[in-house]
Design brief:
It is a single chain. The chain is built from twelve helices and eleven strands. With 483 residues, the chain is an alpha+beta fold. The strands form three sheets. Strands 6-8-9-11-10 form a five-stranded mixed sheet, covered by helices on one side. The protein has a four-stranded antiparallel sheet with strand order 2-1-4-3, with helices on both faces. Strands 5-7 form a two-stranded antiparallel sheet. The model has no long low-confidence stretch (mean pLDDT 89). Bound molecules: adenosine-5'-triphosphate and magnesium ion (MG).
């Protein structure tokens, strides 16, 4: 059965109201009945316990025409006994047979012999009545010289019954009003509870279909409010994850395209030079030598790209191992300077080295740190016009060592400053290629520095120059095991 929550709610409320009314009804009618019964017996007992009445009755029983006398006396008490000749009557019965002699009811002959009458025939007072019976009665034996009699009062419970009928009508009316209220209440409940759930369902369907545009409004702090908030958070996170996935998929495609392109260029030139060498046997030795040089350079270039890619993929796979040891950072800076100063001079650059403070030994992978420094210097050499100024500076501060390479070269446009650390990113592809760059140097450097718990900072102004700085904690990254 596929009932909506709203229908279920209405049915539950209806069941609650109907059962509540039924319980109230049963208790009320029972209460009314037992109240009447108690009242009746209290009233009877009060009247018949009067000594005066007992004496009067005894005197009457001794007289001639005793039944009529007794009837007179009882009639005198009819107000106190509640006798109305309608629902409640008195009877004077024969004490031996229970036969009707006289009474307030027009026709008393059809009178049933009730258990109380039987008790009175036996000479005792009959004051007990079955609550389930359709009547309540009292039978009192009175004997005198003219015989024995029974004073019998019987109420047919019609008053109680009519009160109960009235109560029943009221309960039915209350039930109808209650049902109307309950339906209205259900509508209100539906608005406050079910409407947000329906909104959630719609939004969830949209999210399932990949549409994240809708954010659910949330005004309440109750369970449904929390659910809505959680749903919004979940949808937001899902959207971010999907965005990330799309971005990384896009990056992967770009990366593959870049790799293919970078490798195809040297392969094409190697192939065309080799073909020319193979086909043309008349080539002069000098040209042949030049061609061979190009072939060697291009294959070196390919080897470098492949080597760099391998390094990066090892970083990605987390399979690269670092050899952490304590070494002199100052010496590394000096070594890199010495190794590159000749190259810088060949481009007529004015290249100076400066130490600002004493530099402590640091914990790190010496070869890889030097690889970072080397790339920083070689970039400065490559991207500065011949005859430029280059400065390599190093120092230590607050538990960190730093080294920066400043040049007055071509600089990097503002919008590219953050991108130069991306794989294969080069500001000017043609220019970088000319100088042998593949755009992998800084991305590798960034990975190496990150694994040392350090950071890289790059400031640059297009046409003015660049300053790149590496910072490294002298105690290595936090998770390293120290020798
Ligand atoms: N000092 C600098 N001055 C101007 N541009 C720079 C400088 N350093 C880096 N760049 C720019 O950043 C890009 C990326 O540098 P990166 O070191 O990653 O690659 P590359 O030097 O081109 O190639 P590789 O280092 O792999 O041989 C360079 O292509 C260049 O455009
Ligand atoms: Mg480089």
């Amino acid at each position: 059965m596929n009932r909506s929550l709203y229908t279920k709610l209405v049915i539950i409320i209806l069941i609650i109201i109907i059962s509540l009314m039924a319980v109230v009804g049963v208790f009320l009618t029972r209460g009314v009945r037992s109240f009447y019964l108690n009242e009746f017996y209290n009233q009877m007992q009060e009247v018949f316990s009067s000594r005066q009445l007992a004496d009067d009755l005894r005197v009457a029983a001794n007289s001639e025409n005793a039944a009529a006398h007794m009837a007179d006396i009882i009639r005198g008490y009819s107000g106190k006994l509640g006798i109305d000749s309608g629902t409640r009557n008195y009877y004077i019965l024969d004490g031996g047979s229970g036969a009707y002699l006289t009474g307030s009811a027009a026709e008393g002959n059809g009178l049933e012999i009730t258990p109380n009458i039987v008790t009175a025939i036996g000479g005792k007072e009959g004051y007990v009545s079955d609550p389930g019976a359709a009547y309540m009665d009292v039978a009192l034996p009175v004997s005198g010289e003219s015989g024995s009699y029974i004073i019998y009062i019987m109420d047919n419970k019609e008053t109680a019954q009519s009160l109960n009928d009235q109560l029943f009508r009221i309960i039915i009316q209350a039930l109808v009003v209650g049902l109307i209220i309950s339906v209205l209440l259900s509508l209100l409940l539906a608005k406050t509870m079910i409407a947000p759930i329906q909104d959630l369902t719609m939004a969830a369907k949209k999210v399932a279909g990949g549409d994240f545009s809708e954010k659910l409004e949330n005004h309440s702090k109750d369970e449904i409010g929390i659910l809505t908030q959680t749903f919004n958070d979940m949808a937001g996170r899902l959207e971010d994850t999907l965005d990330d996935l799309t971005k990384s998929e896009q990056m992967r495609r770009e990366f593959v395209a870049n790799v293919s392109h970078e490798l195809r260029t040297p392969i094409t030139s190697i192939r065309s030079y080799a073909e020319t060498l193979g086909e043309d046997t008349e080539i002069p030795d000098v040209t042949r030598q030049k061609f061979l040089e190009v072939i060697l350079n291009e294959s070196d270039r390919m080897a470098k790209i492949v080597q760099d890619l391998l390094t990066l993929s090892r970083f990605d796979a987390g399979s690269i191992s670092f050899v952490f040891e304590r070494f002199s950072f100052e010496k590394s800076v000096r070594d890199v300077y010495n190794a590159t100063v000749m190259e810088a001079q060949s481009h007529k650059h004015d290249f100076v080295l400066e130490f600002r403070t004493p530099i402590p030994d640091i914990l790190g992978d010496r070869a890889r740190i030097e690889q970072v420094l080397l790339n920083m210097v070689s970039n400065a050499v490559k991207y500065t016009k011949d005859g430029g100024k280059m400065r390599m500076t190093a120092g230590a501060k607050n538990g960190e060592v730093w080294c920066s390479v400043r040049d007055n070269g071509i600089g990097i446009p503002k919008e590219d400053v953050t991108k130069v650390f991306d794989r294969f990113y080069r500001v000017d592809k043609a220019r970088s290629r000319e100088s042998g760059g593949t755009g992998l140097g800084l991305s590798i450097a960034k990975e190496i520095v990150a694994r040392h718990g350090g950071r890289m900072e790059l400031e640059s102004r297009e046409g003015k120059g660049t300053n790149i700085t590496v910072w490294l904690p002298s105690e290595g990254p936090e998770d390293v095991c120290r020798p």
